[in-house]
Amino acid sequence: MRPQLLSLMRVAIALTFSQHAVVKLLGCTSIGCIPQPFTPLWLSGILEIMFGSMLLFGLASRSVALLLAGEAAIAYFTMLTQQGFFPFLDDGKLAILYCIAFLYLAVAGPGSWSIDAITRPARAA
Q1: pLDDT higher than 70, residue 87
Q2: What is the reported pTM?
Q3: Which of 5, 18, 96, 105 could form a disulfide with 65 if both were Cys (CB 3.0 to 4.6 A apart)?
Q4: 45-68: b (≥16 Cβ within 10 Å) or e
């Protein structure tokens, strides 16, 4: 059941991560309402929706997960450490968890229920 559970984990992570992007682009956040186009917040929202959707369906999963891990790390160190370095002080717990989860998906792969698994050639036993 490992490949199937890995797929479920990938889908759950992608769905919850994409919700952050939707809130950034369409709703109000703690830093204000809909961001101006081409600002860092707007660009990160666009990337999160695009890459989150790719990860949801398992398309180029390893590369996308690695890019999203980098984005989560950048978000933590640039935006969230302004109140302090430790996650419980700066509300950066989710950024750290997403970073580690994306790194795991980049190494482990998308699981058996993904476009990547369907389109890759069968590996020799």
Answers
A1: no
A2: 0.84
A3: 105
A4: beebbebbebbbbbbebeebbebb
What burial letters (b/e) apply to 81-96, b meaning 16+ CB within 10 Å?
beeeeebeebebebbe
pLDDT of the residue at 85: 67
List all residues 6 or more positions away from 29 whose beta carbon is below 8 Å from its beta carbon.
23
Sign of CA dihedral 45, 51, 53, 56: negative
Q: Which residue(s) pair with 29 in the sheet? A: 32
